[in-house]
Write a structure and sequence with these properties.
about 280 residues, alpha/beta, Rossmann fold, seven-stranded mixed β-sheet, 7 strands, globular
């Protein structure tokens, strides 16, 4: 598939995903907030600065950065899915966060006509057909000593909330396994894979680190509902194989999630995130 055709499908898919993401926002962000905080720290964001957030989705880490830059700063969150942008903007208005704005842009062809002090991206570049092009575009929008802080997922075996759904769809329906050539949430799990792309795009990698986040679901039932509503891989299997595919996948997931069930019945999925800081010059 050509990159533009793929992006058109992805734009529609992510816009459609805005509703379930909004539903599960608080559950997901309880685990992900530590990533937001760390990205802001790694980018050395300070009061009064101008910050660019790439692939901001429903608004993180934009909102975390907005609290740091304060009323005299500016945060611009960009995403290519219009429904995501609309929901993030509505959330900003409801919060009265006048220093954060959201706009629809393609990160691979970014042309904002302005410069920023720092840039952030949480789980964004791994989903793009041409991540190196996007990384180059972002670099042109930072001042010479500006920093980029970004995150992505580690190897599949260390990211169970994603790996379980991917394994289910692969074993049951023959879905492809994650690889570096194809956009996807576990694309750059290999150690050093993202750092290589940063260097190709002209960045200087300052530091890399890992962080463990916990997705906590109250029960196996809630976990299965979460996967059914949030897993694009599962939804694609249903489109291709019919409604019975959902029942098959959920039965597989229920059996394989048992090692993560706690004594109180909650499901704890501890997953490893990789983060890096890179300099524009």
């Amino acid at each position: 598939m050509q990159a533009e055709d793929f992006k058109a499908l992805q734009r529609a898919a992510w816009s459609a995903a805005a509703t379930p993401w909004a539903k599960w926002w608080e559950v997901f962000e309880r685990g992900a907030q530590s990533v937001n905080d760390r990205l802001v720290e790694l980018a050395c964001i300070a009061p009064g600065q101008r910050v660019l957030d790439i692939a901001s989705g429903l608004g993180e880490p934009s909102f975390t950065a907005a609290r740091r830059v304060g009323p005299n700063g500016l945060v611009l969150g960009v995403d290519f899915a219009p429904d995501m942008v609309a929901r993030a903007a509505a959330r900003a208005r409801a919060m009265g966060a006048t220093q954060v704005h959201f706009e629809e842009h393609d990160a691979e062809r970014l042309a904002l006509g302005r410069q920023f002090d720092a840039a952030l991206s949480r789980w964004g570049f791994m989903l793009m057909p041409e991540p190196v092009s996007a990384l180059r575009a972002v670099r042109t929008h930072l001042r010479p000593d500006g920093l980029l802080a970004l995150s992505w997922w580690a190897e599949p075996e260390r990211v169970p909330f994603l790996a379980l759904q991917a394994r289910a769809c692969h074993e049951l329906f023959g879905a492809p396994v994650p690889c570096e050539e194809l956009p996807g949430p576990m694309r750059f799990g290999r150690s050093g894979a993202m750092e290589e792309r940063l260097c190709q795009a002209g960045w200087t990698v300052r530091a890399s680190e890992e962080l463990t986040v916990r997705l906590r679901l109250a029960s196996v039932t809630e976990f299965l509902t979460f996967e059914s509503e949030m897993s694009s891989a599962l939804q694609k299997a249903v489109e291709q194989h019919g409604p019975k595919a959902r029942d098959q996948a959920l039965a597989w997931l229920e059996a394989h999630v048992q090692p993560y069930v706690q004594s109180d019945g909650a499901v704890h999925l501890d997953s490893v995130v990789r983060l890096a800081t890179a300099a524009a010059s």
